[in-house]
Write a structure and sequence with these properties.
Layout: H1 3-31, E1 43-47, E2 53-59, E3 68-72, H2 83-88, E4 94-98, H3 116-130, E5 137-142, H4 144-155, E6 164-170, H5 185-204, H6 206-215, H7 217-228, H8 236-248, H9 251-261, E7 277-283, H10 291-300, E8 305-309, H11 316-319, H12 321-341
Helix pairs in contact: 3-4, 5-9, 7-8
């Protein structure tokens, strides 16, 4: 074999070795805290808007003046999607995890109350119930949880810069109707009303949706893996945990929230986020919400930081905690420092 071929082979083997090392690190990061769903805390009784009981778990911090970090999950899943943040960011402050109405262990919600406006009120209630007076608050939202934070900024802008000092928006969109499945914007926008009408029809007979979900269960599992993760083959147990959350979500909840999300546009009401440290996280291979939609948020919020997470899909918070967690840690540090100094950090 010629020296040139030897060099080519050595370079290939070197790249393969580095790839395997990175893959081993990511797998090790997933194994450290144990299976998804095994981290729990005593629930704190909180009643959301309209009397819906919310399942809220609080991990206290020894320092009463420590910041309070509230984590809001996405549609059809539960607070367990924050498993790796829960395991690694405990030292940052008081950590609050909760299930949205109609999800997980929280109470059911009527279709008319399954709206972003209601979720925003629920988030405000959770903050009031769990964050001590004077404690700076950082809110992190994934997908629909991010939309919830943006809806809170729309309805309660006075909270940002005073009570809330930092925001993380993870794989989310300010206008979901134009981002579904990476369809061309005009096509997605034209189809959004029909999605809303379809969900409204299914809400009148959720049994049909239940039956359809049962019939397509064998197809749904791999579909969830492909839509949620950049490489669903990398960690089948992780994919399975997300699928189980989605499968357990009631059909009425799924249809009601999708009907509301299909008609939401918050692009013109993001200005309160300019009063706080804002981080926009984007999985490079998100097949649900295009990168362009994360750029729109970052462009409309002065000084917001956009971080693209390579090797991650829509569930970057679970797929790449080795990248996401240091970014969240940095956000909390910057937000608390800005609050203490009264200035934006560099």
């Amino acid at each position: 074999m010629s020296p040139r071929n030897d060099r080519t082979r050595a370079q290939h083997e070197g790249r393969l070795s580095r790839y395997r090392a990175r893959r081993a690190v990511r797998r090790a990061a997933h194994r450290v805290p144990g299976p998804v769903g095994t981290l729990r805390a005593e629930p704190v009784p909180v009643t959301g808007a309209g009397g819906v009981p919310l399942h809220v778990e609080v991990e206290e911090h020894p320092d009463p003046s420590a910041p309070t970090i509230v984590f809001a999950h996405g549609v059809t899943v539960t607070l367990d999607t924050w498993h790796y943040q829960r395991a690694e960011l405990r030292d940052l402050g008081r950590a609050v995890y909760y299930d949205h109405r109609g999800h997980g262990r929280s109470g059911p919600t009527e279709p008319g109350d399954a709206t972003m406006a209601r979720l925003a009120e629920d988030l405000r209630t959770v903050i009031e119930a769990t964050a001590p007076p004077g404690s700076p608050v950082v809110v992190a939202g994934h997908s629909m949880g991010g939309i919830t934070i943006m809806a809170l900024a729309t309805h309660h802008p006075e909270l940002f810069g005073d009570r809330i000092v930092g925001v993380a928006l993870c794989d989310t969109s300010a206008c979901l109707a134009e981002s579904v499945f990476h369809l061309p914007p005009r096509l997605a926008q034209a189809g959004a009303p029909y999605l809303g009408r379809l969900m409204a029809v299914l809400l009148r007979n959720p049994g049909r949706l239940d039956a359809a979900r049962r019939l397509t269960a064998l197809l749904t599992a791999p579909l969830v893996g492909r839509m949620a993760f950049a490489d669903p083959r990398r960690d089948p147990a992780l994919v399975r945990s997300v699928y189980q959350m989605v499968a357990a979500c009631p059909s009425r909840t799924l249809a009601a929230f999708l009907a509301d999300l299909a008609d939401y546009d918050l692009r013109e009401t993001l200005h309160p986020l300019s009063e706080v440290e804002t981080l926009v996280l984007a999985g490079r291979h998100d097949r649900l919400i295009p990168l362009a939609h994360k750029r729109v948020i970052a462009d409309r919020v002065p000084d917001a930081r956009l971080e693209v997470v390579r090797g991650a899909g829509h569930m970057a918070i679970m797929e790449r905690p080795d990248v996401v967690n240091p970014l969240l840690r940095d956000l909390v540090t910057r937000a608390v420092t800005r609050r203490a100094n009264g200035t934006r950090t560099a």
